[in-house]
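>> received
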Amino acid sequence: MSKAVVVFSGGQDSTTCLIQALQQFDEVHGITFDYGQRHREEIEIAKSLGKKLKLASHKVMDVTLLNELAISALTRDAIPVSNELMDNGLPNTFVPGRNILFLTLAGIYAYQLGADVVITGVCETDFSGYPDCRNDFVKAMQAALEQGMDKQLTIQTPLMWLDKAETWALADKYQSLELIRDETLTCYNGIKGDGCGTCPACLLRKRGLEEYLADKDAIQARLATKC
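>> returned
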């Protein structure tokens, strides 16, 4: 029996990955992390979607210790979300160590479940500039987990080379575009669906959707060359 663990935030990307995984694996388990995030409404969204999509299991893990260590606009309400880059060239929504921690814990969880695959919705093609969303980082994490646990483990990144329009196309391929649009939470200000429309996450999501809706056939054809 094939099993996979999906790092599942309840946002557009992770929910799209989850829906695809449900078609590809016999058992799909979700893991959601509570790190005291600004947009913590996403946790309840993930719980609701997990039930609706009938996951084999869904674990919500308290990792609020990350909030104490990682200073970011997503972990400090007093820091406004900004579209401007910081002096180090990164957005102020970057949470240092977040995906290092998430993939480590997801790998441990997969070990306990007897799953050989961890799936995460990170993307290098159309992302916010986070270094822990890059392919080289994911490959390094996979190698570290395999060595540290002496177990074969694959970290799959279905969206790694897709832009946001192609991610919408992937959701549509699985007849889930409306669910992704209406029932996920990507917005840094915690507004479900189309969100606030002004934060970096909403702007990226909106541009991708507009591009996809403007020329579905062309983008589906582009997606087919990548999937």
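>> The longest strand covers residues 27-34.
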